[in-house]
Amino acid sequence: MDSQVEADGPILVTGATGRHGNTGEHLVRRLRDAGRAVRVLARTVSERTERLAALGAEIAVGDLHDRRSLVPALADVDLAYFTYPIDAGVVSAATNYASAVQQVGRRPRTVVMSMGPAHPDHPSELGRAQWLAEQVLEWAGLDLTILRVVALFHENIAVLHARDVRERGLIRNSFGENGVPWINGADAAELGLAALLHPARFPETIHYANGTEEFSHVDIAGLLTELTGDAVRFESITKDQWRDDLLSLSQTDDVVNPAMAQHISAVGETVAKSGRSLAADRAAFEALTGREPVTMREFLHANLDKFTTHQRQPA
To answer: Which residue intervals define the domain NmrA-like in the entry (predicted)?
Structure first.
């Protein structure tokens, strides 16, 4: 029988001020709804930390790249959520976290939000780095549950493609026309919540979490055409072409960065060449979380303002 974890100390949550999917903020809200004490690790006090504090979360100013700042944040913690942005630096962040845990002398059970490409031989530099970071945490003897989400986030469509959809009626990337599994950022947070509070549902150290539905980017272009009333098409391009597109986007969008550009373009090429990915499994998600997932259609409909304009340039 599944049982909910009880803990007296706060649950430490890293990454709660990130913007790629707002997964961390959603997790904090859900933990507070469940009556749990939450301590958020944040590099600075900001409008985002003010929102989290308004939910009842404690804000601990610290940085995964400053081991000294992690020691007080971990002082009375027996349960933690570790995640890192889609950016370079995860190995040193994991090393600092593991070292701080050792210094504090507690052994908090740590849920790691990971990615499907976490593998020593993956073409993505971030995928290889994520795998190595998890090795560091294991070598340190931490009590881990690693959630490798084998799906793209709905939010990727808005972050990576909204500008081209608005201006050119175009989605272009290196994924080809293959279907891939998708998940909403809030639903990824639901998996994290379940792993934190219901560990019996995750008996293995590494859990591969499939997406909740499958779409190709051709399918998504069709959905956007239907929902916006404007024609949207998909164009398949090479890994290098898409990486260059994303590097250009990173000059004006502070969510996208060079490491992310290399990562997602390499993942796209891998999927296009293999012609396959792990199948989506909505039933498994519902069994783990007890909730229905957000659908791609619901996400796009709720975010239509990001994709619509009548000031398009010729394709």
So the answer is: 10-273
